[in-house]
Amino acid sequence: MNPNEVGAVVDAVLTGFLDDKDHRSPAVELLYFSGQLRGLLSAGGKRFRPLMCVTGWSAVDGGPPSDIVYRVAASLELFHCFALIHDDVMDHSDTRRGRPTAHHALAARHRDHANPAELGVNAAILLGDLALGWSYDLQVGPPSPTTEQLARMQPTWDALRTETLIGQYLDLAASGRRTADLDTAWRIIRYKTAKYTIERPLHLGADLAGGSAQQLRALSDYAVPLGEAFQLRDDLLGVFGNSDRTGKSIEDDLSSAKHTVLIATALQRATPTQRRILHRLLGKPDLTEDQCDQIRAVLTVTGAVATVEQLIATRCDAAAQALHTDHLHPAAVAVLHQFAAAATSRAV
What we know:
The protein is 76% helix and 1% strand. The chain has helices at residues 3-24, 28-42, 48-61, 67-91, 102-109, 116-139, 147-174, 182-208, 213-240, 243-246, 252-255, 261-269, 272-281, 289-301, 304-322, 330-344; strands spanning 95-96, 99-100.
């Protein structure tokens, strides 16, 4: 199984699905909204979740994925569009994947409106709702999963939706608090990334293939530590990354005082002087580059950065150890090893 080929097939499924939606509706407004989704989908994105879904199938079945598997995998990408659009509204983000976020793009289209910013936000909420609804349409076909496959998938989809909501709520509630509460930081990671990005997509593919309880457990043993490592790397990139490569501002996490393991660890270890710097600057909406550098310096000298790097390494090791099992197909195991290396050592 070639991950690049999986991404290409998923993109073709998404394009065909949107073409069909455009063809069925005479409303020009819908064409504009579907165009916004096309723009978000074409602006990048690594197709992690679809790849995990297809890999979950291969880990159980061992054979080539069916069209049904690819439709369910592609539906995860539309669900992700919904989550990103709403997330950007809640976080007041300006850019996504190097482009204006949906609410900014929609506001720019209506510059002559009495309140273009408010219209942009409201229209983006509608766009996210559309992506969510269409993700369900996409997964049920045609071609359609069997009644047995739908029954197996439903609890996993329910869990994915619930866990995504919980993770986002925890993230919103914790942002701006500037606390050393590591427990909440870890819960955010597990709900918002480990389960949403890795575990549930793998489970969906395995469900379609009729995976056993042992196979689902083996996938979870791999997915949870890898998902944690993935988000820990993302949090480092959110502060120390290159915005030209990541496609988002590296000041956003600091100006919103995003509650991460990185920040909580630094606050836990900081001297009084260092803690005052963090409390004074974290969450400041108009941070200068010099002030960002002051925060980065504290994160480094407290050892928080080195600690997070070590946490990434230990969780990658745990994920690799989980793949030493006879329950999963060897070809899929090889892909999962490759994915772990790429996802946690990435620069974007």
